[in-house]
Automatic annotation (TrEMBL):
It catalyses: [thioredoxin]-disulfide + L-methionine + H2O = L-methionine (S)-S-oxide + [thioredoxin]-dithiol; L-methionyl-[protein] + [thioredoxin]-disulfide + H2O = L-methionyl-(S)-S-oxide-[protein] + [thioredoxin]-dithiol. It comes from Vibrio hangzhouensis. Its EC number is 1.8.4.11. The gene is msrA. Belongs to the MsrA Met sulfoxide reductase family. GO terms for biological process: cellular response to oxidative stress. The active site is at C50. One of its GO terms (molecular function) is L-methionine:thioredoxin-disulfide S-oxidoreductase activity. The lineage of its organism: Bacteria, Pseudomonadati, Pseudomonadota, Gammaproteobacteria, Vibrionales. Has an important function as a repair enzyme for proteins that have been inactivated by oxidation. Catalyzes the reversible oxidation-reduction of methionine sulfoxide in proteins to methionine. This is Peptide methionine sulfoxide reductase MsrA.
Length: 206
């Protein structure tokens, strides 16, 4: 099986019943990564390649309260990083972004998402190849789903028919925190690998 072949549920590793790591507070702002959302907070889960660089994009934004990295969109419960990299979990690497919509809108969050990766590459992002690097937007509400699909339509129009967006948009099926050493990785390791850049498509905001 190729690294770019998506598995089915009956091919997936079984996983485990308990979480793989005890979470620590956010390395930068000390927020509780596992805390329930407050009434003024909103959350969306995004996959745009290697989650180290992707997470840094979002924790730097005004209005973002907290970020964490993890695994979503697959079948294996509480997977390890090694299991996800094997391609046998169905998960993609994602960033969970908690934000204050009174300060930064979902549209602004998604603008960063679209413009900082190439959403047309399928099961890869640049030199990172495999199903765990696929582009994805996992929504928590019907309103988020509507906004996400509308922004995709606008970006597809900007790209034209020769470049087809492959981003997966669906309601969040699951989210599992990645191991502690992955959380805010590039703050802990400033010279670490970052595969995220400005390779997406840009267009004037509406």
């Amino acid at each position: 099986m190729r690294k770019t072949d998506m598995i089915s549920a009956d091919q997936a590793l079984p996983g485990r019943a308990t979480a793989i790591a005890q979470m620590e507070p956010h390395f930068i702002n000390q927020t509780d990564l596992s805390a329930p959302l407050l009434p003024h907070e909103e959350c969306i889960v995004l996959g745009l390649g290697c989650f180290w660089g992707a997470e840094r994009l979002f924790w730097q934004l005004d209005g973002v309260i907290s970020t964490s990295v993890g695994y979503a969109g697959g079948y294996t419960s509480n997977p390890t990083y090694e299991e996800v990299c094997s391609g046998l979990t169905g998960h993609t690497e994602v960033v969970r972004v908690v934000f204050d919509p009174q300060i930064i809108s979902l549209q602004q969050i998604l603008r960063v998402f679209w413009e900082k990766h190439d959403p047309t590459q399928g099961m890869r992002q640049g030199g990172d190849i495999g199903t765990q690097y696929r582009s994805a937007i996992y929504t928590l509400t019907a309103e988020q789903q509507t906004v996400a699909k509308a922004t995709m339509e606008r970006y597809q129009e900007a790209l034209g028919a020769e470049h087809v967006i492959t981003t997966e948009i669906q309601s969040l099926p699951n989210y599992y925190f990645a191991e502690v050493y992955h959380q805010q990785y590039l703050a802990k390791n400033p010279d670490g690998y970052c595969g995220i850049g400005g390779t997406g498509v840009c267009f004037p905001p509406q």
